[in-house]
Amino acid sequence: MLFLVIGRGVQGLGGGGIQAIGEITVSDITTLRERGFFINIPIGALALLMLIPTMNLPVPKMPLKTKLAKMDIVGNLVLLGSAASILIAVTEGGVTHPWSSMQIWIPLVAGMGGFVLFLLIEFLPNPLSTQPVLPLKLFSNRTACSAFFMTFLHGIATYGAIYALPVYFQSIKDETPLRSAVSTFPSTAPTAPFAIVAGIAMAVTGKYKNLTFVGWAFTVFGFGWMTRFTTGTVEWELIVAQIVAGVGIGILFAITLPPIQASLPIEELETATATYAFCRSFGAIWGIAITTSVLTATVSDRLGGMPDVAQLGFTGPTVLGYVERIRDLPDPVKEQVRQMYADGLQKGMYAFMPVVVVGFACCFWIEDLPLPDFMREEKKNQHQQVYLEEKSPFSGDGSDGSQDTTLVGSTEHGPVVSMPFDATHDFVRYHDNHQQQHIQRTPEGYASNSFKYSPTLTPSATSYTWDEKSDAVAQPPRAYW
């Protein structure tokens, strides 16, 4: 058992890292508009062979001591311990111990308290966490907060259903594990295609808010339909309900990350994406725990009035392990056991309804921000220099009448340069809100084609600054950034 626990821990470290790194890599090499066209390669070995010759990205060189200092060791340990304590309480409650027992309350309270401590460590300045794994700036706007919470809820619903449906088909419909996998195909088959469709729709329209409404609407309707699953549910209803839920789940797989990355600075891309992956994984833990807890609690409660079933070894802790034995039970007892499992799974689906309804409600707090069109390196470069088109009269050595720019200072956005104002030219800027904007420079001033959420230029004494309030035509000063 110890070896199994250690092995699962190592597997979790690798799996969690792969999930986060995959999302970060896709975010690094594609724009947010294009990301809907890219899907994961399902064969891991092929992916590895492709990465070896192509993943030649520069690696920052720093001493091991510096690398370790950047790790939030304290925060990660507190979070890991808190999650483990909560998981123990949720999975053991009503199974090995009553919910009112100290064996459940102690780890539950300790886990909740540890999670509060983790937030304090991450959000408040302290020497224990100089590089927090969950910086407060990730939750600086309502769009990011809503999207993170939606991701958590999506994880609960998705993995809860994935865990519950095979148990339903094996225990209620007398199917083998292989056959139950085929029966759950209607819930998984639409996931990838509709994730791709949602990504394409987002890329074409540049919008994601309406897609979140559509995704959660399908999910709510599908889960609501699955609460009707009983021992007598007909096959067509089982198939259609799963398809509806699968469509919603697939759309949300593609749509929950873009609002996060569109609403946060590019510098937070890796941290935001890793937090997104954590929210989904943490939700998966709760989804599986809810299914298991409700089912085992229902079975434990019902067994008191079923002595014949209890004598066969069916107890709360064995409820999942004994699923395959149901097919071999005599008919009168089999019907009792099937009804017991059906009631437990139905209660589990009812428990997921508040989760998906709250997820739908979160859509109202999402803002439809413009999707970034820049690549990551381009964004980095714009903080180091002012980009001008090659034909600009302000670039060159002066042989064609042009004059070199002069660096006169800097701002948080980039350098401030002084340029002569004697010609008309076009140049391109990349903004904090991740939108590319073309600005026409004329002797009369600067005319911008900005729109809502897009910053515009206003003059100051020595430089231009960005103003998100309204479009404007600004009179040019002698220096600008």
From TrEMBL:
One of its GO terms (molecular function) is transmembrane transporter activity. Residues 391-415, 433-452 are annotated as: Disordered. Gene3D superfamilies: MFS general substrate transporter like domains (1.20.1250.20). It is a multi-pass membrane protein. Residues 400-409 have a biased composition (Polar residues). One of its GO terms (cellular component) is plasma membrane. The chain crosses the membrane at residues 37-59, 71-90, 102-124, 145-165, 185-204, 211-227, 239-257, 278-299, 348-366. InterPro entries: MFS_trans_sf. Keywords: Cell membrane, Glycoprotein, Membrane, Transmembrane, Transmembrane helix, Transport. It is found in: Cell membrane. Belongs to the major facilitator superfamily. PANTHER family: DRUG TRANSPORTER, PUTATIVE (AFU_ORTHOLOGUE AFUA_3G08530)-RELATED, MAJOR FACILITATOR SUPERFAMILY. This is MFS-type efflux pump MMF1.
